[in-house]
Amino acid sequence: MRLCLWLPAICIASAAQAASFENLHVFTGGADGADPQAPLMAGPDGTLYGTTSAGGGGPCFNDLDIPGCGTVFALTPPARGGTMWTETILYSFINTADGYSPVAGLVSDRAGNLYGTTLVGGNGTGPDCGVDACGTVFRLTPPAQGQTVWTKTTIYNFQDGADGAQPAARLVMDSSGALLGTTILGGPDAHCSCGTVFRLTAPMGGPVAGAGAWTETTLHAFERRGDGTNPENALLAGPNGSYFGVTFLGGTDDFDCVSSGCGTVFQLLPPVGDQTAWQEQVIHRFRRSKDGAFPLGDLIADDSGDLFGTTSAGGGAPDNGGTVFRLAPPQNGATLWRETVLHAFGFGHDADVPEAGVVFGPGGALLGTTFQGGRAGSGGAIFSLAPPSGGTGAWTERLLYDFPAKRAGGQPMAALLQGPHHVFYGTSSDNTAFSLR
Which range has the worst mean pLDDT, 9-13, 24-28, 317-321? Predict the structure, then answer.
């Protein structure tokens, strides 16, 4: 079996044999946080950093009536000879004005500062925000020597104008230290609150030492139908300063989806010459039953420039449970990207509804999570897709772990993080952080 060649601990001898799975922390819903929806980030010393969308205190309540405005946490690996990971709360959001519901992951700079977003909260008052405001971008500065308290600074409040509203995706940092991200809603067109791509530039002198406000620039505002709408994913840096991303909706009319379409994959190209505007190109429009619909996860790219991602629905398999796809760039003078569905998910014993993107494993395999499905029921699963031998033929899916359907630990919404020695780390929205060997 191909999996046994590169992940011996995940070698599955029979359908009943599970992978080596461990819960690193079970969130209680109190001060330690609740409902983690974001991927983990690795620190230089093996510490894992992440966010919970609720818990931690504060007067906020989410759709599940879980109290608390959310947290930023660290998980420290066991000391030599130990077995227990230690969770430390770096910051608990206080109230809506402070920021509420950090559903996205974190990014760090060279100085160890952490940056993230809250889906709602702040001081924005636009029509799409309601009482919860429009979302924020924040920075956490590590403690000074001899201190223990991290310092939180709100570096931007979205206003639901041209700047957008409700950032749900992990930020990315470019070589200059600027932060780039997406918002689900907002934009300059009052008739289409379709989302934006934005950049935040630090004040002169650097992100911490510099005085003054960060500068927000809207690089692209999405329009209804044609170019996609409502991006919920992080951007992926591409060639020549470009960025790739996906939109949850838009692209083209499709009676199987909604009036604005099933979602897109786009490339955002920087200005050339004396131009100042960024240019968006839609490189793929999804068509539900044929190749998937409603992409939510981040894209990844291999050395040849192929893009890999997931759709949370569609694909034509039973019940249209989503897909894993590959997009190959144009070659030999062509202009169109070539899409291939590597796997279509369905209900039953297969995994179902991948809300996160995939990551690379050794040997060219792809690993990911699904929000539903699996042999254990509807708690979700961790899957792998092994490439065909010789480069042609079908990819082979294996379910590496099935989350329980009726107790804490299921319904993962975040991509996996590959650590040393082929250990993968992740979170489940049903209140766990875990590892898979």
Answer: 9-13
64 belongs to a structural domain: no
Whether residue 52 lies inside any domain: the answer is: no
Q: What is the pLDDT of residue 407?
A: 59
Residue found by looking up tokens 């809300």 in the block: 355
Contact 164, 196 (CB under 8 A): yes
Task: Please name which of 389, 393, 411 lies closest in space to residue 5, comparing C-alpha atoms.
Answer: 389
* Tens digit of each residue's pLDDT (9 = 90 or more) over 184-201: 999 887 678 899 999 999
Digit-coded pLDDT (tens) for 200-228: 999 875 665 555 789 999 999 998 767 89
Q: What is the span of the domain harbouring residue 130?
A: 3-28+122-134+163-436
Those residues whose C-beta lies under 8 Å from the C-beta of residue 178, and which sit 6 or more positions away, are 199, 200, 201, 202
**Which three-class secondary structure state does DSSP give residue 154?**
strand
Give the pTM.
Answer: 0.91
Q: Tell me, what amino acid is at 204?
A: M
Q: How far apart are CA 197 and CA 60, in angstroms?
A: 27
Q: For residue 342, report the phi and psi dihedrals to the nearest 5 degrees.
A: -85, -30
90 located within any domain: no
Q: Using alpha carbons, select from 314, 322, 338 the residue that is nearest to residue 397.
A: 322
CATH code for the domain in which residue 314 is found:
2.130.10
pLDDT value of position 45: 87
Number of domains in the chain: 1
Residue 18 has pLDDT above 60, yes or no: no
Distance separating the N- and C-terminal Cα atoms of the chain:
17
What does the angle CA 122 – CA 125 – CA 130 come to, to the nearest 5 degrees? 90
Q: Which residue in 158, 232, 221 sits closest to 191, CA to CA?
A: 221
Number of CB atoms found within 10 A of residue 183's CB = 32
Cβ atoms 21, 434 nearer than 8 A: yes
d(CA 89, CA 106): 14
DSSP 288-345: BTTTBB---SPPEE-TT--EEEEESBBSSSTT-B-EEEEEEPP-TT--S-EEEEEEE-
